[in-house]
Design goal:
alpha/beta; about 20% strand
Length: about 325
Amino acid sequence: MASAQSLLDDIQCESLQQLLVSVQRETKPPGFTCIPSLDSFLMSSKTHRAQSSRSSLDCGDTLLIQGQPSSGKTHLLYFLLATCTMPPEYLSRHLGGWNKAAFVYDMDGKFSISRWKAILVDRLTRLLPSASITPLVERCLKLLHIFRPKSTDQLIVSLAHLPKYHFAHFSGNEMGIVAIHSINAFHWLDRFKAEQLLSSNALSNKTTLRPDLAATLQAICVSHSPVTVVTDWGLAQYTKPSPISITNMPRGTYSQHPQDPQVLMTPNAQSDNMHPNAMGLPFTCQITLAIAQEDTLGKKDIQGFVNIPSRAGTGMFTLKIRDDTLLVT
């Protein structure tokens, strides 16, 4: 007969925080992205587990936004962050926001708070009377915090302390989005360090050198279940077809090197298949952006292609970038 201690040892233990998060995963999903075509594609995924029609995303989802430089990655991130910080309703008007805190790790210093504010104001102007916008914009600004790490090591340390920072400064708001903007900004520095280790035979060519970054992000996903958004610019050039369509879209995960030592990419990242385990985390979806049309005044039409690991087919949406306007369809 099993002893009482052995029976107790068989019982799985979890913290109160983990229990609350597990309940939240099933009862309080984040919400919609407010990009109709993207939301529709995510809702149709077999992996979508939200129990209601109130959300296209699940708690703990991880989104990869990739593309060449100036392909709209930052603007798509601006839009998602606005959705995160906006309330669901305001003055009895439906806004579709999450009313949650958002944390941005700006790895290359290119995230513009003034540009984000301009896009937020334009979006609210389309939904609310202009006289009521200013206090709401200030409210949204208070829910956004930007960190600017100077190295991958600083990124890891900052992420490790994020739960404490969130508790100290945003205890009244759930953690909605954790965004790492331009994750490969320190690619060459990390690669140099990795090659130094490889040359000393300390590590094999196929070793992932920064598992601590993946583990830290995974710990945050488990403890707080935010939506993680990673932007990644690709050095690899693809031949841009004209016009871009679903039959000739840019495919695959961008890669810096076939044996990339950076934690975000796997050694086989140049193949045509998605890599859901890149970064050590399963990506809910991979969004590839490409410029469909651009004029001399800087106006751009961006085509977004969405792939989900367990779902056949490709979703599409369009970003229209103008002076102070970002339109999505």
